[in-house]
Amino acid sequence: MPTDTTASARARASDELREVALEHFATVGFGASSLQQIADHAGYSKSSVLYHFASKEALLEAAIGPSIDALEDLLGDLIEFRRSPGERGAFIDRFVDFLLANRLAVHTFVNQGQSLRGIPVIERANVAINRLAEAVCADEATAAEQVRFGVALGGAAFILATGNLYRGDAPELPEDEVRTALVAVLSELLLPVPAGRPDRAY
Amino acid sequence: MPTDTTASARARASDELREVALEHFATVGFGASSLQQIADHAGYSKSSVLYHFASKEALLEAAIGPSIDALEDLLGDLIEFRRSPGERGAFIDRFVDFLLANRLAVHTFVNQGQSLRGIPVIERANVAINRLAEAVCADEATAAEQVRFGVALGGAAFILATGNLYRGDAPELPEDEVRTALVAVLSELLLPVPAGRPDRAY
DNA sequence: CGGTAGCTTGACCGATCGGTCAGGGACTGC
DNA sequence: GCAGTCCCTGACCGATCGGTCAAGCTACCG
Predict the structure, then answer these.
(1) Where are the domains of chain B?
(2) Which residues of A touch B146 (CB under 8 A)?
(3) Which nucleotide C1' is nearest B57 CA?
(4) Distance (Å, rounded) from C-alpha B12 to C-alpha A115?
(5) Digit-coded pLDDT (tens) for A41-95
(6) What is the DSSP letter of A182?
(7) Which of the four CATH numbers 3.40.50.150, 1.10.357.10, 3.60.10.10, 3.40.50.300 does domain A9-190 have?
(8) Strand D: which nucleotides have any atom within 7 A of a protein Cβ?
(9) What is the per-residue pLDDT across A97-137, written as a single tens digit (0 to 9) for each?
(10) Residue A53 CA to nucleotide C21 C1', Å?
């Protein structure tokens, strides 16, 4: 490792490349990202990228795999306490924390999960999302419930990656405010009707 | 195919190509779509695509431009009746109709509007979405309101393009049920708190 | 000091990218 | 019959794609 100061140069380069790659995958999409662009943006050569990661798909796996692991852990816990509205609220808290800690990865596999079928890590993500949907929606899943879940998932993934909401002058929303707002919105969308939902136009 | 039966062959081929291209742009993304794939999928040659549309960007413009026109018309009307909750509800009705009639185009410019900056038609879409945000959120826009709008927009765009919600066995939700569900969800998200919103966990 | 392992790189590969261009076949008007 | 227009296409262009390979460099170990 040339001119290594702290940890191994391998780990440092890998981390930098993973991070830059994730940013590209989330913003311009996996298919539209080139190894050359990622390498340039990270300050390495394309060959270096392919030294640390066997292929473009392997780089994707390294970039979003850990986030999917975390999601699977979350789902494992979810199986235990089911159904009770209070515990669902607690799950939403944890879920929002997960979203905030994995913004780019979530946006990547939520919005590209359909088109990247066949890539193992994406398949894993799709299975996890499917399990999440089954756990959140009732098993008999009315159309309304599926729409609520889809809007919650897609909406959260969207807002997490779209920093300032198309407003060029935006002041970059503070994370804790986003967190509380997101918990509130997802609670409204996913919690079984808490007595006072304004039932207009159903 | 030069054997023209009904309308002009130009118009028919253009329509087919626009449709196929829009499907590709919405699903795999503009940058990851190739003219060759679009041509193959439509049953034409790549040269034919570039005969009908001067460039890949021109094809994008043709594919989503009309939808953006419709959105701009919708916004023009929105300026007139502002603020009153009842009229906002009526606007949501019309907006959902617009979403359902322009599923793929909406998904395309909502989810790729950030990464495709510089393309004129995308710039136009971003301006329209920005205007929509300013009209829906209050001008002073709390973080919670911006999150609500973002979740509503991103969530709607997501669910419109993601046909069966990751569930391989899904029975393809009927459009009218999706419509009513979407109106209900967007009303909850965007209508100023209608007296009885369950204010949990704020 | 020589050897070796780890990290980086440029040169190179075949395939594909968006785009240009010169035609070819089918139809119309003369 | 012939010119012209319209629609479509294959051949071709330079650039870039993901990926391979061998060489070079630094650091450490004997």
Answers:
(1) 64-190
(2) 165, 173, 181
(3) C18
(4) 28
(5) 999 999 999 999 999 999 999 999 999 999 999 998 776 656 666 777 889 999 9
(6) H
(7) 1.10.357.10
(8) 6-11, 16-22, 25-28
(9) 999 999 999 999 999 999 999 999 999 999 999 999 988 87
(10) 42
